Amino acid sequence: MALHELLRPRSGLRVLVTAGGSGIGASVARAFHAVGARVHVCDVDRSALDRLTGATPGITGSMADTSVAADVDAVFEDVRSHLGGLDVLVNNAGIAGPIGPIEDMAAADWDRTVAVNLDSQYYFARRAIPHLLASPDPSLIAMGSVASRLGYAFRTPYAASKWGIVGLTQSLAIELGPQGVRVNAILPGAVEGDRVSSVPAARAAALGVDVDAMREQYRRKSSLRRMVSADDVAALALFLCSPAARNLTAQVISVDCNLEYL
Q1: Residue range 99-156, pLDDT digits in tens
Q2: How do residues 213-242 score in pLDDT, each as one tens digit?
Q3: Is 152 an active-site residue?
Q4: To the nearest 5 percent, what fractions of the chain are helix, strand and coil?
Q5: DSSP symbol at 175
Q6: Does 57 map to a domain?
Q7: What's the 3-state SS for 197-237?
Q8: Where do the coiled-coil regions begin and end (predicted)?
Q9: What CATH number is associated with residue 59?
């Protein structure tokens, strides 16, 4: 096989992307669709889901709160109907969670952050694994964060849940490796787009500093002095599902311009 062919996922992969209606999830879904994959997404935002599926015929979608087990079960009914099986799960769902000192955080806010960011990974993995075990080319990608490797003051529930994803990834890689399932995690840094615009604004408000100064601080924390794009993250997801990555598993790979600290 030629090198350029090794770098491209095979056509016809059946791919599920959670929280795929917008942001990183939508970029990942569109990238797989563009290389010939059959793609299904779920999202809690109906308008985002409709925009994606309307603009990209061939991508199908389900409404779901990824932190609710019954919703996840319904998604897999749709996956069976639309895809007939599954080769790739991209566990992408996540929320920013509350910002502020831990002593001021409501327990409900902590619980919701962990439920969406970490519990959803479990709910989808446990339903996906029987399908992946029947796939000739199975891969599970967990979407973490640079906060999966760095402490994050005033964002403790977010960081704790994202560190949990690393433990889940490396444990599942060991558990499923003998059966040929590869499990890897992608850790995006500060990503350009609507969500990353809101996070510095909320952090600036919580800390009482200027929002523009906070955005510049995000850039200066990285070695390359810039943010990454959602397409940068999608490109890595494609690579991890390509023949070139057939021996990569249990890897936790940052796409963050080397964010040095948070």
Answers
A1: 999 999 999 999 999 999 999 999 999 999 999 999 999 999 999 999 999 999 999 9
A2: 777 777 788 888 888 999 999 999 999 999
A3: no
A4: 50, 15, 35
A5: H
A6: yes
A7: HHHHHHHHHHHCCCHHHHHHHHHHCECCCCCECHHHHHHHH
A8: none
A9: 3.40.50.720
